[in-house]
Structures are given as C-alpha cells and as structure tokens.
C-alpha cells in the first residue's frame, strides 16, 4: 500500500503550494525603470522547498521527496566605466616669449639708412589681412599712448617684408624695464585681439631699433617685422578657408545662434593635434587659427591644440560681427590639478559668455590618441553617434558665465550602453582659472586681468 500513500502525499503537498500562491506569498520581482533602458537584477531567494507531507524515507535511505520552485535568473547590473571625458591635453598653449631682447640702439649710419628706406617705402595696395570685428576688446582697455603703440605694431605687422619701419616717439629709454613691459603688454593685447596674425603668434619676429633725439630728450623707436616669405601665400590660404567655412553659417538668427553654429562646425572639422602636444613645440601653426582652419606646420590639415581651436573660433566669430577675445589660464578636473589652457570669451547680443571649443570636441576622444587602442572604443563610438549624448557633451562648456565656467559642477549624466553592460559618465566637474587669478606682475597676467567678466 506504499504507492497509494505516496501519491496522496504528493497531492496534499501540491494543494498546499497552490494555496500559498493564491495568498500572494510568492517573492516579488523588480526591474529598473525603463527610462534607463536596462533591467536590474531580480531579487534572489533560496529555492523554496516543501517537504512532502507524510512522506517516509525511501527504501534506499535518500532524502524525502521535495517540490522545488523554479529560480529566476538575476540580470547582471551594468558596470560603471571609470573613464571620464576630461581634456585631451593640458599645458598645450604656446608660451609666448617676451620681446625684451628685440630692441637695439642703432648707429647713426643705420638710422640714416632706415630713414631713407622709410622715405622710399610704398605700402602694398591691399593688405590681405582682414577682420570684421566691430571692436577689439583689449585695444579698448589700453591707455591712449598704448593705443598709439598698438596701431604702430599693427602697421608693422601688415607688411612683414623686413623693410617696413614704423616710427614711434617715447620719453622712456627703449632698454628700460618699463618700456619693454609696455611693449609686451601691447603686443600680447594685439595678438589676443587678432587671430589673423597667426604667423606672428608663433614666430615672434618683431623688433625695433632706436636712437635718441638730443634736442627733444626723446627717443625715436623704429618697429619692424622680419621678413616672412610665405606671408601672402599663407594669408591667402587662410582667407579662402575662412570664406569656405562661413559660406553656410547663417547670421539670420541671434548672435548666440550664429556662435553655436560656428562652434559646432569647428569641432566637427578640427582634430586635436596630439603629436604637437607630445612634442610640446611652441613655434608651430597648430597653436594658431591657421592650424585649425588650414594645416599645422607639418602640413596636417585642420590640426590644432587648445589655443589654435580658440583663435579659430574667435576669428570666425569676429568675421561674423561678434566680438571675441582669447583667454589664457589654467584648467583641469580640480583647482589642484590643472595645466595651462586657452579658451574664448565672446559677446553675443551685448552679453559676454565663455566657451571652451577644445574640451567640447567629443570627436577627439574616440578617434585620436590613446583611445584608438582602448577596449572601450566601440562604446565611445556608440556614444558619439547618440544624438542626445553628443549634444549634451559638445555644449557643456558653451555660453557660460565666468563663475559657472570657473567652477563647473557637472549634473548627473549617465549613458547606458545598448547592450546594457556598462554605464559611462558623460560629464565631469572641472575648473577654468584665469592666469591673472594665479599670477601678478607678468605680461600675461596684466593682459588677462583686463578681460571681460561674463555675468
């Protein structure tokens, strides 16, 4: 009679199990919100085992028969990827050497020769350099005498033939520290205002000779720029590239709309110049608007580092009637971990705003540098092709106030990969500190201290 007894026990056990289910005693199963597009791990419980009522040990001495509830397999939680989107490079700014040793006292015979050259000099009919900015910010911050010097340096720069001397009268001795610092402040102001002086930004070939006018107790300083043989060719190529770039940029909307369109097109065009960053070479066109819009000194098209990006962005804004200036400072993930960096300050609709076109360039993260061999490369490309993620990442440092830009606090921004395996953090905290906030008394800190503040 064992067989009927065991069948009855199994029926009773099954009835008890069904009764428990009807009472709502099964474990709950939870999933992650569909807004993240993934499934969280289900709650796990030890298999529920109900011993058969009235069962007896088997004749072979095995454990009593049992009924086991099927176990739900837990889904794997996505793994956070510990790679951030912070900068491709730091300390990638051209360290402009001062002009302290560029002036010499000339012998009377040399002064006579310079005067003859000046009498016979004929300025070229059309200077190829052009800039449509409605005004130049750093110029407007200078004193009256500094503006005169600024204008003289611009006249010398417009024709770098080696025979274009422009005279300047001063009561200060041209070898004095005060005179040299004043020349450097004006020179830096001019370069930060005028990205079209790309060749002068890297070559630094501006000089002066001087003599004393005894009868007036003043000095005559003759500024000139050494010959730059490829000047016309490079400026022509630069102008062509700018015109091509701006051909489809609309100015019908607000100036901020125009600036955003320029910003987006620029970062889609330019590749960060990792080779230049590694070489740490200052005299390279990759530090200029020419490098970004034409080619660097090695001939690589549209390759630049941070000051090249910023100069190009500023010049394209200026050519669209939007004032913009260069800012040099320090940037990084924290104030204690920074490197020298360059960015832009622009005036859209009467309001100053800050922007970092270099760090906004998400494309740099997936096609260049160490990430070419990264195991995450396919995921970076996936993020790059996700419109919402790309829009967020490519504009997070665009059009911000100075305070927000200085201490950027990133909102929570997670990207869940399509396979549900990983999450990437799209934005990270960072700082942008102006040079004048960390230094004083230097030429660069003097100029950056004049820069506008975006409210």
Note the topology:
Layout: H1 2-22, E1 49-51, E2 66-68, E3 79-80, E4 103-105, H2 108-120, H3 137-141, H4 144-157, E5 166-170, H5 177-193, H6 198-203, E6 206-213, E7 218-225, H7 231-246, H8 255-269, E8 271-272, H9 274-279, H10 289-293, E9 303-304, H11 306-319, E10 324-334, E11 337-348, E12 351-355, H12 364-367, H13 377-384, H14 387-393, E13 398-400, H15 402-406, E14 407-408, E15 414-416, E16 422-425, E17 430-434, H16 435-438, H17 443-448
Parallel strand pairs: 3-16, 4-6, 8-9
Antiparallel strand pairs: 1-2, 5-7, 6-7, 10-11, 10-17, 11-12, 12-13, 14-17, 15-16
Helix pairs in contact: 4-5, 8-11
Number of strands: 17
CATH topology of the largest domain: C8orf32 fold
| Mean pLDDT over the residues | 83
The major sheet is characterized as: 6 strands, antiparallel
Strand content: 15-25%
Residue runs with pLDDT of under 50 for 5 or more positions: 1-70
Count up the helices: 17
Output the CATH class name of the largest domain: Alpha Beta
Number of domains: 3
Please compute the radius of gyration using only Cα atoms: 34 Å
Tell the overall outline: elongated
Structural class: alpha+beta
Helix-residue proportion? 25-40%
Biggest β-sheet: strands ordered side by side in the sheet: 13-12-11-10-17-14
Through-space gap between termini: 93 Å
Secondary-structure arrangement, i.e. CATH architecture of the largest domain: Roll
